[in-house]
Amino acid sequence: MLVQIADVLTLDELNYCRATLQEADWIDGKVTAGHQSAKAKKNLQLPQESEITKKLGAIIIEALNRNPLFIASALPKQIFPPLFNCYQHGGSFGVHVDNAIRRLPNSDQHIRTDLSATLFFTNPDEYEGGELLIEDTYGAKSVKLPAGHMILYPSTSLHKVNPVTNGARVASFFWIQSLVRDDAQRTVLFDLDQSIQQLTAATPDHPSLVQLTGVYHNLLRMWSNT
């Protein structure tokens, strides 16, 4: 399931992040790539331990925790601290799959990467190329979103970033361990959740709402792996 989430950040948050990222010091992006991915990766990245990374990452986490669409679609158990990358001067990332397990910074704990996320900080007209191509059941999906918008997709997906031939593509990327490991099960729960919300808005006293809500929670109870 691919989910596009608009306006993850407020305008003030977005403008602050964009201004801060323009002044940041970038390093080679291979520092977070696995052995195979490093061969395909050509971009820049903010150091994981830098104060800018931590500060902007905290802003993103706070924004995600207040976003109903993110909560409904990801059912997050744990979010990896957001990282930041920049593609320019032909920078790209060839076809790859994200590492299945990530160690949390300064910790012996690990998370399973069920979902991958890209939050854009530059608008499509600010750079050429740089499309995120994600393989799903129906073929490759091309993603190039406005600043402040995010794409959420299964980490099992093959994906790549096309070369940026002009300008710079700046984004945050991170992973989520979900309460529900299986993408098909998450999709069923998400569709049911959205249907319940629509029914609630249209006919708030409909007698089926209690039953449908019970079905949702019973499926979540059955499929969650907390």
Write the layout of secondary structure elements.
Elements: E1 3-5, H1 11-22, E2 27-28, H2 35-40, E3 41-42, E4 44-45, H3 51-65, H4 68-74, E5 76-79, E6 83-88, E7 92-96, E8 101-103, E9 110-112, E10 115-120, E11 127-129, E12 132-136, E13 139-143, E14 150-154, E15 159-161, E16 164-178, H5 183-202, H6 208-223
Antiparallel strand pairs: 1-14, 2-4, 3-7, 4-6, 5-16, 6-16, 7-15, 8-9, 10-14, 10-16, 11-16, 12-13, 12-15
Helix pairs in contact: 5-6
Structure keywords:
single chain; 226 residues; alpha+beta; nine-stranded antiparallel β-sheet; 34% helix
Describe the structure.
- This protein is of the alpha+beta class and 226 residues long.
- The protein contains six helices and 16 strands.
- It has helices at residues 11-22, 35-40, 51-65, 68-74, 183-202, 208-223, and strands at 3-5, 27-28, 41-42, 44-45, 76-79, 83-88, 92-96, 101-103, 110-112, 115-120, 127-129, 132-136, 139-143, 150-154, 159-161, 164-178.
- The strands form three sheets. Strands 1, 2, 4, 5, 6, 10, 11, 14 and 16 form a nine-stranded antiparallel beta sheet that branches. A five-stranded antiparallel beta sheet has the order 3-7-15-12-13.
- A hairpin with a 6-residue loop joins strand 8 (101-103) and strand 9.
- The longest helix has 20 residues, at 183-202.
- The chain is globular.
- 30% of the residues are buried.
